[in-house]
Structure formats: C-alpha cells, structure tokens
Design brief:
By secondary structure, this protein is α/β, with parallel strands linked by helices. It has an eight-stranded parallel barrel with strand order 1-2-3-4-7-8-9-12, surrounded by six helices. It has two domains: about 375 residues, Luciferase-like domain (TIM Barrel, Alpha-Beta Barrel), CATH 3.20.20; about 45 residues. The longest helix has 28 residues. It starts with a strand and ends with a helix. It is built from 14 helices and twelve strands. It is about 50% helix and about 10% strand.
Length: about 450
Amino acid sequence: MKFGIFYEHQLPRPWTEGAEQKLFQDALRQVELADRLGIDYAWEVEHHFLEEYSHSSAPEVFLAAASQRTSRIRLGHGIVLMPPAYNHPARIAERIATLDLVSNGRVEFGTGESASRAELEGFEIDAPQRRAMWREAVEQVTNMMVMNPYPGFQGEFFSMPARNVVPKPVQKPHPPLWVACSNRETIHLAAQLGIGALTFAFIDPAEARHWVDDYYETFKRECVPIGHAVNPNIAMVTSFSCHPDHDEAVRRGLDGFRFFQFALGHHYVYGSHTWGRTSIWDHYVHVRDTMGLAMLGGGDGGIGTPDELRRHLRQFADAGVDQTVFIQQGGNNRHEHICESLELFAAEVMGEFKEGETEREAKKAASLAPYIEAAFARKQYLKALTDDEIPVCQAYGTEVAEVDIDSLPEANRQRALAMRRLTEVVAEADRRAASATA
C-alpha cells in the first residue's frame, strides 16, 4: 500500500498577520519532508470562499512550488473543480500539462464537480447540472492533452473551435485520472469511467472491502474509459497523528481532526455563514466543550501509537486499498507535531507496507489487463481532423489590406503601411515556396 498527505490549508480564526503565509510555507516544508521520507503522494484541494476550512484556491501554484522543492513524491490535484465556470477546460489542460513538465512527470490529475453552495453560487453554477458539467469537461480535457490538434467541441456547457492545446504532458497519454468520491454511487461512477477513486468519506476500515469490491466488480463489467488511459486505484483518507504515547498522539491530533470534520459540515451541511465575520472556530469550541469531541464523528483510527496505526492501516491494506491518505493538517495542529508524526510513521510503520508493493502492483496489473483491453474496445473516440479539415486561423493583421489607410490618423497610418508591406512580402514568399514545391 502507498501513502499520501493531504492539504486543505485550514486556518481557524482569529487570523493574525502573517498566519496565511506561515501556513503555506509550513505546508511546503512538510511536503519536502514527506518527499525525503519516501511518502508517495501530496494531495492539494481546490476550494473557493470556504473560510477557515480551506484557503486553497490555487492548488496549481502550490503544487508547482512543491515540484521545485521535491524530486520523487507524486503531486496530486485532489481535486480540480471541473465545471467550466470555475476553470475553462482548455486552461485545465494547459495547467496540468505545464505542472507535469515542471515536475518531470509527477502529476496526478484529480477531478471533481463541487458541492458547496458557497462555491457553486459564487461562480453562478447551476448545482443540478454540475455532474454533467464534470463529465463533459473531464472527457474533453483528456482529449485536449492527447490530440494534435484538438478538433474543437460544441457541447452543452462549453464550446471552442479547433486549436492545438499546448504544452502536452510528460506522461503519455496523460497523467492518471482520479475523481473525488464521498459515497458508493460515485465509486461505481469512477469504476464505470476507469478513473481512480479518491475517497473522502471517512470509511470504517471494516467497510473498506465492500467499497473496494464494488469498484473492481463494476470496473470489470462496465468500464468505458472517459480518458485515454485507465487508473484502477482506490485511495481512502484517514486521520493522522503518531506518537509513542497514545494520549499525546490524541492531544496533538484529535482536536484538529474534529475541527476538520466540523468545518466541513459547516460549509456543506448545517452552517449559516456571514462572509468575513463568522468564526467557525468559536462555534466549534462551543460544540466541543458542550458535547465533547466524540460526538463530532468517527474516523480517528489514524491517531495513536505506531502499533495502533499499524493495526488500523493493515485493515485498509488487507481490503485492497491502494493508498491511504493522511489528514494531518487540520484546525490548529502544529507544524512541528506534524513533522514529528511523519518521521515516526516513516521510521516505524511505513516500511512493512512497502514490502512487496512492486509485486502486488504487477500481479494486479496482470489480472486486470484483459478487462482493460475490453474496456477500451467499448470506448468511442473523438474523431481526429484530417489535414484538409484543419481550419486556417488568419491573424488580425492580415485584414490590413482591406483597411482604408488614408483615412487613419498619422500615427496609425505608418504602422498600417508597414504591416501591409510585411504581409505582402510574406505572402509573396509563400507563393514562391509553393511554386517551387509544385
């Protein structure tokens, strides 16, 4: 089994001068440490307007910075918001490919549709249409990263003419695809489309096998790849705080993890929010002190001693989970404690889960190979343009021949004359070249 770390960039109120800067710089240092320790993935969300819960509105910038401070850790968008009002599909393709280039091919392309009212209505997105928007955009972004040129698209939620979207990614045909999953329905969808399931529900490890079995049974029967490659993998999140003393691990990690859950619920389920004024932290403290931490939910199995983490993670591994992702940055969890937890985990727990991982992956790939072949046999590809069908895009300057230059102001007249002369020279050179070729 592999391991990842996960960032929302949480910042509970009250906010002090320089706190956001420290938050981001600490996170970069943690990713550097994770890279040195041999942790496999660093995941970064995209959210907008979700005060305190997530100050991560530009994950491509953070991941690009992380790419220059690391050498081997995979850099995951967990996730890119795909409805076009958030991000135009061509811009997504450009950013993913650029990040893949600057990281030397280490990008994981996680996708999602969004669910919070704050974000959807903030970008004037019709919430009932978001799943269809996600599906249309994911398919076309993968086409843009692969096709040369992209033949254009007239869709329900976005349209664009034929263009060659550049640059192209290092990983061919494109970086691995993932989708955020919070329930069994989305697990089925991920499997049907050949996408990795990045599961953000805090699943009891005892239930993990049911999710895993659902995914692979669906994948084998129904997969029609939405992209040009499949990524049959399942990642599940868990809490995280590791210390030789159980009580100290709880003291360092549980409060931050419970705030993570509470703030998530505030923005997605039960909260009333006044922008720039509501203190989610104050609300959380009131609930915490009134009802206690235990009332706020489960999912705390990743908080404890190395032996306790080992037992917790073994259940995920035995269930067939490919990657466990740690929620280590939550609430007011301290940077120093996060680093100490990662170091202890890497020293005393991680090694046994890495043993035999290469063989496990090879065996899995071999067993899925015939199903993958069948899946691609069912896929309908976007038709590529023939050379004769590729449209010619004339620069605006080529229209200068139609302009009445004498009617222009003097400053513009001289520029237009020079442009016309250059256009004529280029056209004459093109005619000579074509004549010589013929």
